[in-house]
Each structure stands twice: as C-alpha cells, then as structure tokens.
Amino acid sequence: MALIKSISGIRGTIGGTPGKSLTPIDVVKFTTAYGAWVASQGTNKKIVIGRDGRISGGMVRDLVVATLQGIGCDVVDLGLSTTPTVEMAVKMENAGGGIILTASHNPKQWNALKLLNHEGEFLNAAEGQWILDYAEKTEPTYAEIDNIGTQRNDDTYIQKHIDIILAHPLVDVAAIKAMNYSVVLDSVNSTGTISVPPLLRALGVNDITVINEEVTGHFAHNPEPLPENLVDLCNAVKEKKATLGIAVDPDVDRLCFVCEDGSLFGEEYTLVAVADYILSNKKGNTVSNLSSTRALQDVTEKHGGKYFPSAVGEVNVVKKMKENNAVIGGEGNGGIIVPELHYGRDALIGIALFLTHLAKKGLSVKALRNTYPNYFISKNKIDLPEGLNVKAIFEEIKKKYAAQPINTEDGLRIDFDKDWVHLRTSNTEPIIRVYSESKDEASANNVAQTIMTAIKELMAVTA
C-alpha cells in the first residue's frame, strides 16, 4: 500500500488504511482542500473533472463529485476522458480548475487526483503546498443546503479536442489521407480506445486495428509504454503488415510508435520527430527535461533554435517553455507539449503532427527514425524501502563522483565524457529513477548498472 502526497497531486493504491493508501477518506480530504483552494482564488467555483478507465475510477469520481458539491463547487463531469482533454476543457469552460482521476502509467491498483489551475495547467509548488497544508492543518467548513454545488455531465469534449487538432495549421489531413496508412493501436484497456480511433478516422486513417480495446481498467500489461510492455503491439504490427503501431498510456498523455518491421521508434524520439516537423515550419526554441535524450538539442540546433533543459515534471517543462518562448517541448517519456493547443502533454496532437510529418517526408516509419542521431537511454528504477534517507545516499554518490560535472537542479545528474546519468526520486512511485545515455546501448546500460550497484550498496549499509 502507498500514498504519495506531492505538489502535483495525490496518488496512491486503492484500499488499506487512511493516510497510508488512497482510501475514500483520503479522497474526500484532499478534494476538500483542492476545492477550498479554488474558492480562495476568486475566479469561480466551477471545476471540470474527467477520468481514465481504471477499475476504481467510478468510485473515486463519485467521492470527488460529492465532495466538491459539498464544499460549494459546481462540477462539470466529462466522464471517461483523457488528461489533455480535461486540461483543454478547463479553459473552454472558463472553470476555476480541474481534477483528472488517473494514475497515468501506474498499474491498476493505483489511482490519483491530478490537480489543475484555471489555465488547465498543473499547479506550481506554492499552490500545491497550499493544498497539502490545508488538508493537514485546517478543519474544513462545508456549504449549507442553499449553497451546495451543482453537477453537469458533458461527454462532448473529446470531439471538441479532435476538432481543434484538425484546425491546427501544421496538421494536414489531405496529406495523411493520401498515404492510406494502416495503424495498430494498443489502448491498454483505457480511454485511448474512445479517443485515438476517432482522431485517426478524422485524419483519414480508416485501416485501424485496436488491441487491448475494452475499457475495463484490467490492463492487459503494465500500462507504462516501455519496450517490455509492448511485445504484443510489435507482433501485431508485423502480423497485420501495418504502416505503424501506436501506444498510449491510460490517460493518453504519453505516446510512442512502432515501426513497420515491429521495432520500436523509441519513446524518446516521439518528441524529437514532432519537434523536427514543427521546427522545419516554425523557427524557435525547444525544452525537455534533464532525463531526456540529447537528440532534441541536436535537431533544435540544426534548425537554428536554442535548446533549454528543465527539471523533470510537466510543470517545470511548461515554466521553462514560457520563459524561453519555446514552440515545442515535452519529456522523453513520449510527452508532447504544443503551446498553441495548451500547455500540457497531449498524445492526440502528437499523433496528428507525427502522421503529417511522416506523410510529407514520404518515408516509412523506420526510415524516418534513421534520419535522427542515434543515442541510447537506459531507463531503470530502484524500489525504495519506507523511511530510507535518499538525500544522504545522493550525497555519498555525489562525493564518489566529485571529479565529474554534477547538476543538482533536480536530483543528481552526473556527466561523463560522452555519457550522462540522472538520478531522481519519482513524484509518482516510491522509487529512484536511474536514467543514463550514451551513443552505445551497452555503454548506457553499464553506466546505469555501475551507479545502481553503488546505490544498492549504500542502501544495504543504511538499512
């Protein structure tokens, strides 16, 4: 059982003991605090909510809706939806905020409250801390009978989202339709099923095969779109002789592609390819986080722009994008942020721009991938026992590699001659993420394993 309270939201496993996992009491407690924060902003008390296809989604939704009404907020419930759709709906509804009920890439036992401001963007550190402090320190006051909030259901926003994507000046439906693409989609038993196929059809793609289609929340595999979880998709692409495969996570803000031969395009290269297309039409700067491939920097500089790294986390990427007027940004986990739509990761606009790029290049997916510089990122994680002093372990690692260039903006990043490794605790799971990159796959793995061995030895000493 786990409960992670962070500035970006509340995430935990369903069931168990209040305060140690995501129980109904915790849902009510933190929803109350969020509703109080929205009311304190003086905008309005309308809040948009939406959920992915998780088993616990309906239960959590009912708790959230009733709690928001109880504190005097009016709720617009999108029902089954996607994270980017909810983000856009907040602005379109002129709402005071939004809550997305999703644990993103986490397994089925997890759920979360992902909290948005009136711009449909994730809360900053101060706003998130306000909510955490309120939840722990304030005795809430709920609305009396004449002031309880209302509820309205609205299932039209996925189509509105698609319509806005089709109107984007760099999305070329005619070019895509002319290529007669065939696509295999892995929607991992969640809301990719109700959002991606309608988008593809609107883009002129009619040959669509969906695997793991039924929206049950019983994920057919671990829902994080990593290579080991996409074997069935890769095999289906080869079997169907499809043009490409598409994988999204349960809330459709992460995106990766499979080449026609069943090989992975690489989730790190989702952003690289889309950025290449945008920068070829619109000059400007780019942003990605410290754990993302340096290939984005290469592509950005090729087009005459400047690349800026940020701390990990969507809110940090967005902040850096605004500061540097970036025309495209995102994260190496397949997250694409296109500011003309909204400042949030969005797999749907990513699909439309990627397919347009592919069509205009006239290449196969594999050939397109081969146009980009080859870097290899090894992505690993170490489970954290409860109560471990991670800061002390990072300090010891820092001392061990004191001769190397070190960045402590977000965890610990160590640069070597041609390689780098980035260590940071996750905001969403009790783990240390260990990412390393090199021109050579074996070297990237070796760097990661060397650091992981050192961490585990320190963990054993401090246990």
TrEMBL record:
<protein>
    <submittedName>
        <fullName>Phosphoglucosamine mutase</fullName>
    </submittedName>
</protein>
<dbReference type="GO" id="GO:0000287">
    <property type="term" value="F:magnesium ion binding"/>
</dbReference>
<keyword id="KW-0413">Isomerase</keyword>
<feature type="domain" description="Alpha-D-phosphohexomutase C-terminal">
    <location>
        <begin position="394"/>
        <end position="452"/>
    </location>
</feature>
<feature type="domain" description="Alpha-D-phosphohexomutase alpha/beta/alpha">
    <location>
        <begin position="8"/>
        <end position="139"/>
    </location>
</feature>
<dbReference type="InterPro" id="IPR005845">
    <property type="entry name" value="A-D-PHexomutase_a/b/a-II"/>
</dbReference>
<dbReference type="Pfam" id="PF02880">
    <property type="entry name" value="PGM_PMM_III"/>
</dbReference>
<keyword id="KW-0460">Magnesium</keyword>
<dbReference type="GO" id="GO:0006048">
    <property type="term" value="P:UDP-N-acetylglucosamine biosynthetic process"/>
</dbReference>
<feature type="domain" description="Alpha-D-phosphohexomutase alpha/beta/alpha">
    <location>
        <begin position="171"/>
        <end position="262"/>
    </location>
</feature>
<dbReference type="Pfam" id="PF02878">
    <property type="entry name" value="PGM_PMM_I"/>
</dbReference>
<dbReference type="GO" id="GO:0005829">
    <property type="term" value="C:cytosol"/>
</dbReference>
<keyword id="KW-0479">Metal-binding</keyword>
<feature type="domain" description="Alpha-D-phosphohexomutase alpha/beta/alpha">
    <location>
        <begin position="269"/>
        <end position="373"/>
    </location>
</feature>
<dbReference type="Pfam" id="PF02879">
    <property type="entry name" value="PGM_PMM_II"/>
</dbReference>
<dbReference type="InterPro" id="IPR024086">
    <property type="entry name" value="GlmM_arc-type"/>
</dbReference>
<dbReference type="InterPro" id="IPR005841">
    <property type="entry name" value="Alpha-D-phosphohexomutase_SF"/>
</dbReference>
<dbReference type="InterPro" id="IPR036900">
    <property type="entry name" value="A-D-PHexomutase_C_sf"/>
</dbReference>
<dbReference type="GO" id="GO:0004615">
    <property type="term" value="F:phosphomannomutase activity"/>
</dbReference>
<dbReference type="InterPro" id="IPR005846">
    <property type="entry name" value="A-D-PHexomutase_a/b/a-III"/>
</dbReference>
<dbReference type="Pfam" id="PF00408">
    <property type="entry name" value="PGM_PMM_IV"/>
</dbReference>
<dbReference type="GO" id="GO:0008966">
    <property type="term" value="F:phosphoglucosamine mutase activity"/>
</dbReference>
<dbReference type="GO" id="GO:0005975">
    <property type="term" value="P:carbohydrate metabolic process"/>
</dbReference>
<dbReference type="InterPro" id="IPR005843">
    <property type="entry name" value="A-D-PHexomutase_C"/>
</dbReference>
<keyword id="KW-0597">Phosphoprotein</keyword>
<dbReference type="InterPro" id="IPR005844">
    <property type="entry name" value="A-D-PHexomutase_a/b/a-I"/>
</dbReference>
<comment type="similarity">
    <text>Belongs to the phosphohexose mutase family.</text>
</comment>
<dbReference type="InterPro" id="IPR016066">
    <property type="entry name" value="A-D-PHexomutase_CS"/>
</dbReference>
<dbReference type="InterPro" id="IPR016055">
    <property type="entry name" value="A-D-PHexomutase_a/b/a-I/II/III"/>
</dbReference>
<dbReference type="InterPro" id="IPR050060">
    <property type="entry name" value="Phosphoglucosamine_mutase"/>
</dbReference>
<dbReference type="GO" id="GO:0009252">
    <property type="term" value="P:peptidoglycan biosynthetic process"/>
</dbReference>
